[in-house]
Design goal:
Elements (H helix, E strand, L loop, with lengths): L10 E4 L6 H31 L6 H18 L2 H10 L3 E3 H34 L4 H4 L2 H27 L8 E2 L6 H6 L6 H35 L3 H35 L2 H25 L2 H13 L1
Parallel strand pairs: 1-3
Antiparallel strand pairs: 1-2
Helix pairs in contact: 1-2, 1-3, 1-10, 1-11, 2-4, 2-10, 4-6, 4-8, 4-9, 6-8, 9-10
Length: 308
Amino acid sequence: METGNDSQRLEFLLLGIAEDPELQLLLFGLFLSMYLVTVLGNLLIILATISDSHLHTPMYFFLSNLSFVDICFTSTTIPKMLVNIQAQSKAISYAGCITQIQFFVLFGGLDDFLLTVMAYDRYVAICHPLHYMVIMNRRLCGLLVLMSWVVCFLHAILQSLMIFRLSYCTDLEIPHFFCELNQVVQRACSDTFLNEVVIYIASFLLGGGPIAGILYSYCKIVSSIRAISSAQGKYKAFSTCVSHLSVVSLFYGTGLGVYLSSAVTQNSHSTAIASVMYTVVTPMLNPFIYSLRNKVIKRALRRLCEKD
């Protein structure tokens, strides 16, 4: 096996979700539909928050950022999958694979961090309502989003550089519909110990940290809600968290489910199918979760449609 710059000429084969040719047309239509719904739904959320002055608050600022990241997150994997199905090809270049990993890690991490920032926003709104606008000022909101981008970008660059040190032999088939980091590392014929250590440490710090932050925020929120005397006050406070809790449960539930099941079953094909939940379905459902129960967003969307 030649290493170094010669590895740039390598190609990986993405085996996808199903190899049956008869299912390819069905998969193409299904994933194209989900992708278009995801882009359109999240784009409407972004446009609504920009056009309506009532939505110029920290909560909707973070939501519009989450919608943008969800569009990018889905666009990292689905368009290439659709192109491969249409061209009846499974190939992705070495450079294309590394690029896909980098953006997948970047936007996946941003989803994680933004959900944590939104949990902190809800914590301040419920536990410190009188100081909410002072604490969650524009400078802090911008800084929280900027720091999320910086940390996730550096992490994505690190993972990409770690893959560049690996060499590959003949087993270049990836039983997935995109270049998943662990799968690509496992296909290397050189020593992957350092890569695995970096992946585990990064997962613990950048995955466990946000989860701990969300759990801490909601522990404080629950304590504050329990201290409210009126049932109506409790319901009003809790209702502001329902949408965020739903998205968090969906994102972490599907993501953890995929990796726990892959650790137990070692079935790569099943893992690829399950991965559709957090890579495609979750970003598609987020706009619906935030808009169906939110009268302010519904009103903003109606105004946006009337303008058109």
